[in-house]
Design a protein that fits this description.
385 residues, mainly beta, AttH-like fold, ten-stranded antiparallel sheet, 25 strands
């Protein structure tokens, strides 16, 4: 892990505090020696809350929302190289505010912590490469702009190629692996939940604003820095911002983003409690071929875990294959990882990986691909987000 930030300088009072005030690092009982992240709440600071649906404007809402405490821009995809090899990729930028509002426009003072996760899965080799970076939101080290849209941390960047942010250039590398892609949305921006308001519990304001492109064409280069290959495929983009915490009995969540070859996409998440039950706010979105959307509630999707996998590094046990059924759509899918070990052993440990999909839809065969995220299996996510 690359800790590019030893201290955070917080404006406007320009008080200096240790990064540990916002990010404390300590080894956990099930994680091998190394740092872990805990983003503590800022006391007596009033951030905005996601309370009701709102309209969205582009490219403004692709940019940062500094009145909210937490925000992320998330890019994943499945690619095929010219020689037939398959790859998965993830690039996620996280922003955490120590106080509401943007950082001062110049100097080293900042109230924003930025970090990013980068991963490439080489399916044929059975390898998953990951990297993490941190930076202060000052001196041009990391940040986001809306017009034109851009989000970056050092030389890991996503930049808009057009006015509305639906065409993008994505680039990241860490000396070992490289990702350099052009992305172009094939469907309009989707507002998940209730017109973009995505509740995480029954408590008012414990929600996020959640939008994204569920199908983007992807083309470019991927692989090792010295031997990358031309590849093409499809990608997924999510953007969420919020000021909220998980409910008191919640340990983590399971999240699926699936792209089917009949032109539909399925996003679904299950927020898991300590007793194994799913939060009532769990749900998702089914995006039709014509881009119309249907909101799914917790009980609209039936999920069965078929296999499990135990990490040899952290000893965390994860679900490793699933059956997902949407009875009202007569849709039955089996989802399995392309590589079992796609665990992200970063400052907080989770599993994030490329998956393949097979199944039936109204009696006809359907296939697809996507990404799955599993949190709270190595350690509870309480106090992290």
């Amino acid at each position: 892990m690359k800790m590019g930030l030893a201290r955070a300088v917080v404006g406007p009072a320009t008080a200096v505090l240790s990064l540990a005030a916002a990010v404390s690092c300590s080894p956990g009982p099930t994680v091998p020696p190394g740092p872990s992240m805990r983003l503590a709440p800022a006391p007596e600071i009033s951030f905005a809350r996601a309370l009701s649906p709102r309209g969205f404007r582009l490219p403004e809402d692709h940019g940062p929302h500094f009145e909210f405490q937490t925000e992320w821009w998330y890019y994943t995809g499945n690619l095929s190289a010219e020689d037939g090899r398959r790859f998965g990729f993830q690039l996620t930028f996280f922003r955490r505010g120590l106080s509401p509002g943007a950082s001062p426009p110049a100097g080293l003072a900042t109230n924003q912590i930025w970090f990013a996760h980068f991963a490439i899965t080489d399916v044929a080799a059975g390898k998953h490469h990951m990297a993490e970076r941190f930076a202060r939101g000052a001196a041009g080290l990391a940040g986001a702009d809306a017009r034109p849209f851009r989000v970056w941390l050092e030389d890991w960047t996503v930049e808009s190629r057009n006015d509305d942010g639906s065409a993008l250039h994505v680039r990241a590398g860490d000396g070992e692996m490289l990702l350099d892609l052009e992305l172009e949305a094939r469907k309009p921006l989707v507002a998940h939940g209730d017109r973009g308001l995505s509740p995480k519990s029954d408590e008012p304001g414990n929600a996020s604003y959640y939008v994204g492109y569920t199908r983007l064409a992807a083309r470019g280069r991927i692989g090792s820095e010295g031997s990358n290959v031309a590849a093409a495929g499809e990608a997924w983009f999510d953007h969420e911002w919020s000021t909220s915490a998980l409910g008191p009995r919640v340990v983590g969540w399971d999240w699926w983003s699936l792209q089917l070859d009949d032109g539909r996409e399925l996003m679904f998440f299950v927020i898991r409690r300590e007793d194994g039950a799913a939060e009532p706010a769990s749900g998702g979105t089914l995006v039709a071929r014509d881009a119309t959307t249907r909101r799914l509630g917790r009980d609209d999707v039936q999920i069965e875990v078929v296999e499990r996998w135990t990490s040899p590094e952290t000893k965390a046990e994860y679900p490793a294959r699933w059956r997902l059924r949407v009875p009202s759509e007569d849709l039955a899918l089996e989802v399995s990882p392309r590589v079992r070990d796609q665990e992200m052993r970063t400052s907080f440990t989770y599993w994030e990986g490329a998956v393949q999909v097979e199944g039936t839809s109204r009696g006809r065969e359907v296939a697809g691909q996507g990404y799955v995220e599993l949190t709270g299996y190595a350690r509870s996510m309480q106090g992290v987000f």
